[in-house]
Amino acid sequence: MNITHEPFRLVPKVGAENFKTYGVARPIATHWRKATCKEIGCANFINGWRTTIDLNTPLGQTQAKYIRDHSGRKYTVVGQMNNVVTLEFPAGQKCFGEHKRPLEREPIFYIKGGDFRGNPMGIPTQKLRAVDWIDDFGDHQNKIADQKEKG
Fold this sequence. Notes:
This protein is an alpha+beta fold. It is 30% helix and 30% strand.
């Protein structure tokens, strides 16, 4: 048994050209939209949060300037020692993260040649409707079972 450097991946005994990969995708660009803290139930929005900033670093200085001059968020300084400051932001305001929600779009069902090692035959990726993808997957599984039965 050959094991690759990736965790839990066994290297098959046959080449990648003998494989088909079935996948379902929901790309961020086409299947997701921006969402507010409130609509996703963001824990920081609901409970408030604390942020610790090291003012000794250029990043910390940039963060502090943004929070103070441009963020529009309310906060309280709850601790400061050795130029490291902890700010507490009360609940009910937008956090600093970006949230996304899935759009109600059908995922993209696809089949491509090869496996995780690549597509040595250069078989182009096919995009299918869900029902066709399911049929192809079932047919493929049956072929594998038949081959296994034959030995």
